[in-house]
Design goal:
eight-stranded mixed β-sheet, 258 residues, two-stranded antiparallel sheet, 28% helix, Spore Coat Polysaccharide Biosynthesis Protein SpsA, Chain A, Glucose-1-phosphate cytidylyltransferase, alpha/beta, 16 strands, 28% strand
Amino acid sequence: MKTIILAGGLGTRLSEETQLKPKPMVEIGGKPILWHIMKIYSSQGFHEFYTALGYKSESIKDFFINYYHRQNHLRIETGSGQITVEERADSSSENWIVNLIETGRLTNTGGRIRRMKPWVGDGTFMMTYGDGVADVDINALLKFHKSHGRLATVTAVRPPARFGGISFDDGIVKEFIEKPQIGEGWINGGFFVLEPGVIDYISGDETSFEKESLEKLASDNQLAAYKHKGFWQCMDTIRDVALVNELWENGTPPWKKW
């Protein structure tokens, strides 16, 4: 089954990193978050990716063009330009099929999905964003989607609260909770399963998949929600980047299913 990853946005909320690279190339433990997302899928049996490119797409292309060479030993004859690869015994090159599709620098999320129509064909496909990791059971998500018979299924998540809570009465604090790990409500966590008919809900490049397409799908009773109660984390801020890198360095990244 094909997986679309939206990787073309400007990433303005993470401008400290995205002035030089697209957000999906921001690193966790020395590897782009895009690589981590692909590992989440491939570790569960899904190896074919269609990456919707836009802003600074050359960075993502360069990474994958050179990926195999970077993992192995190289013999380079400078006179002829001939490169001979000798695979390392400990090489961990993944057996992925990665399609890198230009979908426009300023195209909105819905427009990027619509532009992928020639590649997704007539079958069910998956879609996610290039800036979030989770320990989602992809096969359980797919089974849920098929059992509900809707055009789209979104993975709903409940992230921990970013800020603490204060309960007070007449100016006196009754309860103070510093950054409670309780849900703030179910939100869109990405990790979609979609039918080709979803593309009919996208009018053009300017369409926001979230504000327009998903709202219309919901009103037509064509949107199901798979509740994921495990780990989920997006990378919107430098604080988020620091958090996921700390989890990786501590050897406890919950999304690592490989």
